[in-house]
Amino acid sequence: MSGKTGRGNRIEAEIEKSREESNWKKVVELAEHLKARNQPGLETLANFLIGEGKLESYLEENPPIEANIPRAKTGLADARRYLLMCIGEPAKKLEVSLDALLLLSKLEYAMGDYEGALGRLTSAGLDQLTEKALPTRSLRIIAESYAIKGLCSEKIPLPNNSKYQRADKADKMIRCFELAGDLTLLYLQEQDKLRSTPSTHSLHSLPSASTTGSNSPLPPNGVENKKIGVILETALQRAPILHMKAGYVDKAITRYRNMLSAVESTATQHLRLTLARQLAEVLLRGCSEHSYSAPNKDEKSRSSSSLKAAESPWKPQKYTGTNLFVPKNINEEIILLLLISEAMAVREAVLSQSPEFKNARVHAYDNATAVYDLLCISLARRKQHQILIEVFERAMKFSHEATHVWQQFALALMCGRKNARALLVLQEVHRILPSEPHYCLLAAKICFQQLGKIEEGLEWVDKALKSSEERVSMLAARCHLFHGLGLTLEAHHAQRHADSHALRQKALESFVRSQQLDSSDHLVEFYLALHYAHSRLLVEATHHVKLALYLRSEHPHSLHLLILLLSAQKEYEEALELTEAALAEYPENLHLLYVRASLEEAVHGGEVALLTARHMLSLWQNLYKEQLMGEISDVQSQFNANHDSYSIFNMSDKDTTSVHAESVAASRVEQALSEVASSLSSYQPKPGPQQAWLLQIQIWLLTAQLYLKTDQVNEAAQCIQEASSIFPMSHHIMFMKGLLHEKKNEFHDAQTCYQNALAINPYHIKSLRHLNNINVHTYTCMISAYTTTLDALNIQYLHQNDLNIHALNLDPLNQPWSGLLTQGQSVPHAAFITRGHATWQFSGGRERVT
């Protein structure tokens, strides 16, 4: 007899173990053996086990969703019959009646009988259950029961749809889903303990982003994720959604945090990716910095109630410790959540390209791209482009032919100023999507504006034009506009005037064609105005820039151009008035302030303009000083610095435009000279983004120029010294030093400074012009002194060999100098005229150059 009892105990132990492991086939086999023993009470227990096994095994293959309801009505009939046998008085004595009622509610929910399912739960007394420690299988049954109660309540409409009833119903559903979620997390944690899964209960079990991309074709936890079931997975995600529907975003955020702070289990690794992404999305869309409450503040505010909750046996275990990172603001929490989600998404990526893994590959890719889109929104707002680039670099291993990721990668590289790499990625995008013209235009923009590759940029424009003509794209007008821009830049490089004129005519034709295709594009009118301005057709340029402002009144570049056109027509007061109006809209626009200082100097004098220059320096401090002193990367603040400095460099000198090849060469020469200077002297480049420092140089040089015009030479010298301490090898600084020496009548030193500036940038127009003026002034003084000497010596050497000078055509501008000498004057044998490096010696009536 004792042998039979021991055998029965072993069968029951195997049954419990199989139930915990969800091995339902074995549960049914063992229940059949148990039923065959014909002992009192075992038959009811066996029927319950058979009904449970048939129900669970069927739902594993056919999840309880609406599409499977017709099939479930017939497929679950056998399981229903067995479970109905376990709800009478004999079953109550064996304590299987409660579980049978709960499983019957699950069965009827799968069959679409929502009211019947709620009735079973009411009969079971679900709301009156005591919170106590339970076996893992019972935890799952009760968790599913609360989830089913909430799901059925959503399906059944209210008899009287009043506001009070709706609120009461929503509160009850939220409570059901929250209880179901807590019990689910606790059940999964207990399951991991039973299986003794190593290191899944600590934060260190999360693999880092560097250990991503396993060689397995499927995600590592794909099997485990299925065991959570559709009902429980829905319950976990449903409570915060209902909170948001009711307008309680803060409660939804708190619920997400509670679930994510629970100790991770094997089966929740995939689900945590979804929850973390959803919480990040809620924080991005539904929470502002003013209404944000940090997680630690939430814990303090709920300290009194959380103590009781922590002691509840139905609450999951949470991470605790002193070294846990807690976000202090909304930006930290969003980026932390998204980076964790990205690490998990990359880890679960399917690398195999085999057709049998297509569905898994698409599912993993969709999860990853959803995270990447949120990362783009969050990081781009804060100019964290370098982090975004690193994220997309990790995504490349599973993004074969995935156009969306490649497109985002290219845009991130462009924003991060990685222009050469961005061009290579855009080439790949064009290979994948040859019929999309806008990526060709982006590539052309990089070539024109950043790399100075005008011919390659025009090739990209031709590809865009071809694609737009084939598809009749709305971008055709913009393609012609880019074509005109490329031709304009090419015309600037042309050495012959005829070639430049021909290219500008072709550019004008492209602009006009773009205008015909899209007459509402303000950029077309703007570039037409710019074209006419370069051609000195100021009336036509003014007409088109006014059209551009009519189409888009807030376009700052059109305002800037109109101001310059007014000043070119000597309408300084009108230009200054327009500048003040533009600055009212853009008070921190440094290049508009630069123009205002120049106009104020012309209208009100240099003292008024100096006030604007000082304001520009203080504004620069406010905009960039904190960024330069802070521990941030170059890319973070380079965006603003590039935008402002680009405009100032352009308006101060046309030869400093970044897309011009000569200015690119000049910047490289300056950089090389600076490196040599830093190695040979104590000069060290300023820390932080160099574009911001170059912008400050321009402000110092403007201030120095205004001081020179107001005869404040010492102050101008101090400004130049400040600029030299930042970047001593700039040709702009060399030129300003030349102006300073010229103001002091130190013409030789001024000539040296201008020559140094031209040695760095031979196309610097202002240096060429001032060097020419100094040469003309020097030669005029020499010739005047020479004619005085001739008058004195003519008496003494009147009868010696004479040289009749009728014309000396030595002027660089080919203007005759004969008017400076009297016809018939004699030049002695020893007379010399020095010009540059050549010396003209007149001797014995003959001249020769040495």
TrEMBL record:
UniProt cross-references to InterPro entries, sorted A to Z:
Endocytosis_PI4K-reg_protein, TPR-like_helical_dom_sf, TPR_rpt, TTC7_N
GO biological process: any one? phosphatidylinositol phosphate biosynthetic process
Instruction: Output the SMART domains linked to this UniProt entry.
Output: TPR
Listed under GO cellular component are:
plasma membrane
Q: Annotated region Disordered: where?
A: 197-222, 291-312
**Transmembrane parts of this sequence:** none
> Keyword set for this entry?
TPR repeat
Query: What region holds the Tetratricopeptide repeat protein 7 N-terminal domain?
Result: 7-390
Under Gene3D superfamilies, the record lists: Tetratricopeptide repeat domain (1.25.40.10)
Polar residues: bias regions? 197-216
Q: Which SUPFAM superfamilies match?
A: TPR-like
Residue ranges annotated as compositionally biased, kind Low complexity, are 303-312
Chain positions of TPR repeats: 731-764
Concerning its family, UniProt says: Belongs to the YPP1 family.
Give the protein's biological function.
Involved in endocytosis.
Q: What is this protein called?
A: Tetratricopeptide repeat protein 7B
- Species of the source: Halocaridina rubra
